Every structure is written in structure tokens, then in C-alpha cells.
């Protein structure tokens, strides 16, 4: 019997995500589990706090299209055509938790920089994902 059936890998589509997705793919193969990749983009309104009196929807659309292209290239690079791919916009911890619950995820993988000291162990994003998750979380050192 496999330990995990639904695995969610939170990636940021850069070189550091390679280690996360390689580990996620390895665990998925070992457990005959379904693998889903998620990339979360911050809405421009988060970055500017809504203080800019202009419509940012065209720029937001371009950012999403760029993320789609990067996700496609990332998936192709890692031969993960069988993995589900999600591009969502919002607060990363909130969106990862929401999607994990929707997919009945039993393992979330996230990249973490190895820093010294207990307080710096995970970093703010992996720490936020860990503390709100209802399943196992594996922090992959990048």
C-alpha cells in the first residue's frame, strides 16, 4: 500500500524548483501517486495595495500568460506531461492550502533554503504552508 496518493508540489518556476519537482516526482513514482504542480502569482493589487488608480488587468493577464509559458517549459524540461498543472493568483499559503484541500492532498512539497538557527529553518513561505496544512509537508532544501 502506498503512503501517499495525492502529492502537491508548490513551485516558483526557477532553477531552485528543479530539486522540489524532482523529489516530488520520485515520491509520486514510488507511491503510484497523482502529482500536481502549483505555481501561485501575486496579484498586482497586492504589490501596490490598490493605491494605483488604474486598470492593471491587461498587465496581470500578460503576467499570467508568461507564467503559463514558463510552466509549460518547466514541465517539458522535467518530462512531467502526466502531472496536473495549476496556475493560480493570490496569496501563496492560502492558495496552496485551498488547492491541497480541494485535491485531498496528503503530501505538499515546498522548497526551503537551508539557513542556520531554528527560526530561520524554513523561511516565511514554507513556514506558512507548514502551519496551515492539514497533511504532511516536506521542505526540500534548495
Walkthrough of the structure:
The structure is a single chain. With 142 residues, the chain is α/β, with parallel strands linked by helices. The protein has a single domain (6-141), classed as Rossmann fold (3-Layer(aba) Sandwich). Helices cover 43% and strands 22% of the residues. It is built from 5 helices and 5 strands, in the order E-H-E-H-H-E-H-E-H-E. It has helices at residues 17-31, 44-48, 57-77, 92-102, 124-132; strands at 6-10, 34-41, 84-89, 107-112, 136-141. A 5-stranded parallel sheet has the order 3-2-1-4-5, with helices on both faces. Strand 1, helix 1 and strand 2 (34-41) form a beta-alpha-beta unit. Helix 4 (92-102) runs parallel beside helix 5 (124-132). The two termini are 30 Å apart. The model is unreliable at 116-120 (pLDDT under 50).
Summarize this, please?
The protein has helices spanning 17-31, 44-48, 57-77, 92-102, 124-132, and strands at residues 6-10, 34-41, 84-89, 107-112, 136-141. The chain has 142 residues and is α/β, with parallel strands linked by helices.
Amino acid at each position: 500500500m502506498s503512503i501517499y496518493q495525492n502529492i502537491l508540489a508548490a513551485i516558483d518556476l526557477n532553477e531552485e524548483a528543479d530539486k522540489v519537482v524532482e523529489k516530488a516526482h520520485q515520491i509520486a513514482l514510488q507511491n503510484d501517486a497523482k502529482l500536481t504542480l502549483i505555481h501561485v502569482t501575486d496579484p498586482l493589487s497586492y504589490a501596490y495595495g490598490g493605491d494605483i488608480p488604474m486598470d492593471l488587468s491587461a498587465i496581470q493577464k500578460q503576467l499570467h500568460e508568461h507564467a503559463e509559458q514558463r510552466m509549460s517549459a518547466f514541465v517539458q524540461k522535467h518530462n512531467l506531461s502526466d502531472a496536473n498543472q495549476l496556475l493560480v493568483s493570490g496569496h501563496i499559503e492560502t492558495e496552496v492550502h485551498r488547492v491541497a484541500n480541494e485535491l485531498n492532498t496528503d503530501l505538499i512539497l515546498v522548497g526551503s533554503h537551508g539557513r542556520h538557527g531554528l527560526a530561520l529553518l524554513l523561511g516565511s513561505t514554507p513556514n506558512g504552508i507548514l502551519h496551515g496544512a492539514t497533511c504532511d509537508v516536506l521542505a526540500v532544501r534548495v
